[in-house]
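Notebook entry, structure prediction.
Reason for the run: the old model in the group folder had no record of what sequence produced it. Starting over properly, with the input documented here first.
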Amino acid sequence: METEKINRGSENPLDPRKRSTKKLTNILILLAGLLVVLVIVIGWLLYDRKQEAIKLEEVTNEKIQLIGEFEDLSREYEDLRTDNDSLNAQLEARQEEIEDLIDELYRTRVSSAATINEYRNELGTLRDVLKSYIVQVDSLNQANIQLRQENLQARQQVAKVETELKQEREVKEDLSARVELGSRLMAEDVAASAINQRGREISRTRRAEQIQVCFTLKRNAIAAPGMREVYIRIKRPDQLVLASSTENIMMVDEEPLVFTASREINYENIDIDACIYYTDDGSIIPGTYSVEVYTEGYLIGSAEFSLR
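New structure, fully documented this time:
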């Protein structure tokens, strides 16, 4: 019993070694607790950052998709352009609004779904506006189709009237040409020969003094009466035109021609016999001559004769 008491008495609760050990144990427990807390905090922070990164990636993808949808919408507005200046101005204003939103999306760091939703609401509003413009453009197109049909009908009517007027003009011109052609004088029984001083017809060049060309101006009921200048044109066998003067020029089909001789005849819508003479100046040669009779710029008769 005494020994046991002595042993108990020998245990000192204030033993420095035991106190140090206990203190170290408490510190280790505290550090372990802090480490656990730190691990939990770090783990939470990493998880939170990962979630934020996932959300940011989702928002970024939404932003990229949103920009593409705005660009598609801008092209749809561009495709609605019409010939209506007022409507085009409205469409252009909406396109500028879309371009501003696209620029804003590129410049702004979008980090929340709420911001994305705001832009989606803008996109929805602009799409609704686009639908109203589509209705207007469709109405304009229908009106334009109607106008084009009416214009086509009007042009066809105008073309028909122009064709009818052209046909009438052609008929009138044809009638006028026929009247003009029908009113031309004709010379029949054209006869040409060389004559001597006594006015007798001869066939030898050495005795020829003149060449006479006689004809009959035929009656034409629709030809206007009055004085007519009638020309003769005599060509030698070598095709030289005989002329009594260097100033003997007449117009035929708007071309100048040399004539041999001429005279005025008073035409009174009856058959008129007449002769025109050319006096030889030494130009007559043997051979076959051709004679043409003209008046008012057109040929009215012809003949031939020969000299030895």
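Summary: The radius of gyration is 61 Å.
The old model has been moved to the deprecated folder.
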